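It is worth pausing here to work through a concrete case rather than discussing structure prediction in the abstract. The textbook approach is simple: state the sequence, then state the predicted structure, then interpret. We follow exactly that order.
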Amino acid sequence: FELTLPRMEAVGDKAGAGAALVNMGNCYQRLGEVARSVPFYERGRALLEEAGHREWLRNALVGMGKVQRDLGQYARALDTYEALLRHQKAWGDKAGADKTLQRVCHVYLARGDFQKALKAYSQVREQQEARADRAGVASTLNQIGLCYCGLGDYARALSTFEDVVARQELLGDKQAMAAALINMGSVYTNLGDPWTAYVHLKRGLDLAMEAGHLTWQVNALANIGNTYLGTGDATRALLAFDRVLELQKALGDERGVSDALTSLALAHTAAGNAVLALELHQQALQMAQARGDFASTVHDHAGIGRAYVALGEHAKAQAAFEQCAALARSRRLTQPLVAVLADLAQLHLDRGEAALALASAREALGAAEKLLGGLGEEQGATARAQWAPLFATGALAAARAGDPAAVFMFLESGRAGALLDDLDTREALRWKEESLPPELAQLDLEARAKERAARAAYDLAMQGDRRAERQDAGRVLDEASHRVHQVAGRIQRELKLRAEFFYPRARTLAEVRSALKAGQALVLYGLGKDEALALVVRPEGARVVMLGTASDVVAACEALDAGDRGADVTPALDVLRQRLVAPLELVEGVDQVLVSPEGALCYLPFVLLFPQPVAMTPSGTTHALLLDEQVGPGRGILALGDPDYAGVSQGAQAVYHRGRPLTALPATRVEATTIGTQTLLGVEASETRLLEVLAKEPRWRAVHLACHGLVNTDKPMLSSLALTRSGEADGFFSALEVLRTKIPADLVVLSACETAKGKVVSGEGIVGLTRAFMFAGTSRVICSLWKVDDAATQALMVKFYELWSPKDGSKGLATAEALRQAQDVVRSQERWKHPYYWAAWVLWGLPD
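Step two, the predicted structure:
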């Protein structure tokens, strides 16, 4: 081409000279000397425009735009592509214009202009669908998912990436599947779920290696480094990011190098190397600003601020945080905006600037709703947990500013989330096969069928003596169970998207006060980073009570072991009363207490602390919502007891009870027979029969389930009640299945061990069976905090029903009062006076 160019110029062939220059630019680009290609493209373009040569002018503009994008010259790249679009429209080149629009999308995405990118990619997708370009649609959807992720709309991002994986599996494109899986992994990392993130990233990495795609391999390694950071393993994160930086330099990817420096800086901050972190962030920031990369610039400003905080230079930290927030607002970058506002709020709080801290926390809370909405039960709880410090900082700032209404707002917003999310749109989210999109209904059916087959194979393998077969069967069963879990989360998200429901607004303090009756007090406990507080809400007003250091409160909770019948609990109870109850001064005019706990307080038997009857509630907003939904009393008590565990599936037992055997519960037969107006006993005590009988009444007075309760604190939706196996029903009525069921009842009693337990989510409460039954249609659930004694439980339950729903038809006591009096009767007996025998039972929901 160097030989050709002077000859073309000598004969005045502008088109030929322009083509030679463009080809020289292409050569330099392919040799990796991208910067050297720029003047050749520019000279070639000028000659080709004079000559009016369409094809080579198009080539010049395409090559030039790509080089400018690769060099991070995003504004210039957009100008080049806009010029190309004008030419293509003038030439009537619709197909070419469509491709150029995709190039424009890529630039918007690269510079972090996600709103414009999303709009442009949506146009591209419409064009691809019109010409039935399946591969193109799948590729564009992946980019759309990245836009949602950048905008902080994680629910839509996950759904989009899942759609991409399904499409690419059909197309057999391993590279594209790898990209989608790695992108999904990054979303899960942002949602505070590094373990699920790692599963997706490892699968994506394996596919990228099979496809021989080095860029996506490096991308996967970078995201795996982020999962290490998410689990607090700064050392492994540093090793991962060092390797990523080395690979990005070898690839000549300037943006990749910049992002690797940012990641390294974050890891060094986590490892306590703030000075080095600051240097790396500043280096990465210069690179990001030079290429006009909004998103990376935002992240580096935030990182610089955090490094300054670690170094004690608060004024510099504030300036960096404010720069970051301004840019994040201008580009609608939700996740970094929420994070940096939370940092600003904590910084102001540490400096004693309560009003400024409250203002930053308020803005962060408003933006956080977009990040946290539209997710499934467990995903939403996990995502909210990582923002618990924001809710705690906001509540403490409001307390110091003397604003009880704002304290209430922050406490409620943190804990009202998932259950309120579900209750508020219960019918829209009702999970029925006929109401699901066909592809999701099919996924659900396939996942459950594979799990049933895996359980059957596991049962068969356990009958043999070959250890390898058992291990293989166990692995397949784990994978099948995980798939059911994964599909369920996706369905919950999709139903919320279809209902256009994202994040519920907590009710105001005034609204919740008006929902309380005379004599009721709602106590919302909050555990901050340093301080604990309580907000006492009564119909006539609200006040904040400071409870001392949070660590002391948690230590006092952990010192109480009322579930050990041999322990002397008096000293621990005295400490807890002094820390959690006495400061509230709930004596005069309070005859009923509603407790909304947090963290370690979720497992406290508050019946041992308050002299008044106590009911637990997820939040004040939930209490008001349950009151709004309350209908007339139901009829009849359906009691299930003494399930037959003889034919239990070992496969199902492995999933729900870690393979441990289930012992018979003959005492529950007497309990159910004494209590119920209709009973399901022995072989009748199955999930199939339970659902059949439940449907016979529009609303039950009570549903009493006396059986084994199995708690899974890692995956709370797998917490279950062990019933009789029947047909395809495996005998384990899981929280996930409860969510799919309609159980209209005034009260559900889970007369089983530890049914009040689940996954304690920081700032929110317990995710598990209790919330599942509330979603299914009951406004009250009685459950247990620890393993209970059969005989004492039977006596307590019989007495409770005598007081709550007398068989002579007379009016019974309120639920909370009936439970308290039944507990008093049990503890009055010498053999059962220890709290182990009676204090485990708690009421969640409405007290009467």
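Step three, interpretation. The CA atoms of residues 74 and 831 lie 78 Å apart. Residues 756-766 have pLDDT under 50 and may be disordered.
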